[in-house]
């Protein structure tokens, strides 16, 4: 056999170089797959998916997930910037508090249809102890925050709302107004009408009522004088749980520890215990009474109430006439820190933007009048 000469070896090397280049370019790179855990397997709803920020470099570090223990979550959220993001439009944070799949999800989908995502955010607190045979989808997919049981007659309802506020504060600095929504609640105006009404206000809308029947019984429901000295009877207020709060008051609520410690005590007289209807109005009244319009913009009819629940509108009642009636009603204005002597309160006529309670089987009737009635301002 002939031995290869240096010249033949050089020629062979030159001929093989293009093949080596091709192999190098087309070889797959090694990739790493990261498993994302949605939380405990016992949780029937998916966790909230936080927004990520993309930096100029190819690699980026996603923001840390909010802590799941309430104490740490509220502490971190109370320290966020008090102002909305400069240069960005202010957003409304819609906070859905539910123990079931949202029966009016199709109506809300239509409500937000074609609305720029730069104007709103959606967050859902779903009690994990309840069955969710129909998963949250569409607009509500991946909007469920880390949730815990929320039971009537207990402060767990307050905790659930504080979690919603904290997650919304941490998630988007552009959130300016925070609106609490129940599963039985519907909009009675278009999104644009609601947006301009809320974003144009420098004050929160929260019902704050003084000298209501049963005030003392509610105040003493945890035991005689147990609310003292932090919450005197003169400072104790009653109001609707469903409100629209500014960023300032959202931070106030998640950062509160002193007043919350009193309302977090268990009631010994459970049928006088409605902490979610007392904590928020009492706290805001004590800390910033002049910073609110003392009324809720969520319509509710307490005539014919039963077992502490307001009247439920059945499907046969739902129509254009009902929506018109709800819109024409005037909110009840309570204590604004001046004992209602301020003419700006007396002369106000703020519009109701939402309404509750409606039976879940009224969704078809609502959808049939949505475009021509509900969203027609």
From TrEMBL:
The keyword Transferase applies. Residues 1-31 form the signal peptide. Keywords: Glycoprotein, Glycosyltransferase, Membrane, Signal, Transferase. The keyword ATP-binding does not apply. One of its GO terms (cellular component) is membrane. This is Core-2/I-branching beta-1,6-N-acetylglucosaminyltransferase family protein. One of its GO terms (molecular function) is glycosyltransferase activity. Pfam families: Branch (PF02485). It is found in: Membrane. It comes from the Eukaryota.
